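Researcher: Here's a chain I'd like modeled. Treat it as a single chain, no partners, no ligands.
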Amino acid sequence: MALLWRSPGDTGRGRRPDLTVDAVVAAGIELADRDGLADLSMRRVAEKLGVGTMSLYTYVPGKADLVAAMRDQVSGELPVPDPAAGWRVAFEGYARELWAAYHRHPWLLMAPLAHELPGPNETARMDALLAVAESAGLGPNDMLGVYLLLDSYVRGLAFVSVDAQKASARSGLTEVEWLAEREPVLNAYVTVAKFPAMTKVAAAGAFDTDGFEFGLARTLDGIELLIQSSS
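Model: Modeled as a single isolated chain. Structure tokens:
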């Protein structure tokens, strides 16, 4: 918690005056953005900063702590939702910002969430979203439920979208191009006679979209029904 919240007066022994925790965290984010979380290490962060690996441990206890600080730092990129804007506008804006953040920092989807202590940015974000839900007239249980629903929807679909982007980067083909190359094989097995609904959807080009807008709208519609039933 002292690391995440940058406790005042925690200067630490043996720290270089020209290096800070924020600099270490920023270097970690840059490396993870480029190479992913699996390739991130204290040694690589140290090399990027031009310092010895052991010297980093006077700033960050280890990789797990570094990733937690990186996650909270990225949370600070998201605008804090404003209840005054109205619950639907606030939630929709937050969902779009979170979607964009996952695509800017794909490693976030691999960062642990369970049994992780929250940092100041994550806490402020969650508090603001709960306040938005409260302003819509929801009670504590529903406030938390709505927050988890919205967060889980964006995270789940972002995982699929980011995975598709990674596959495209490896192959040099978009998802649509990749499928087009395999269309003759697919058509031999996935026929109208066997799979009429799927082939109809494919013919309409529905598989060419990521589904984010549709799912977000339906999620917000469901929240609206909950709010109406609570009033």
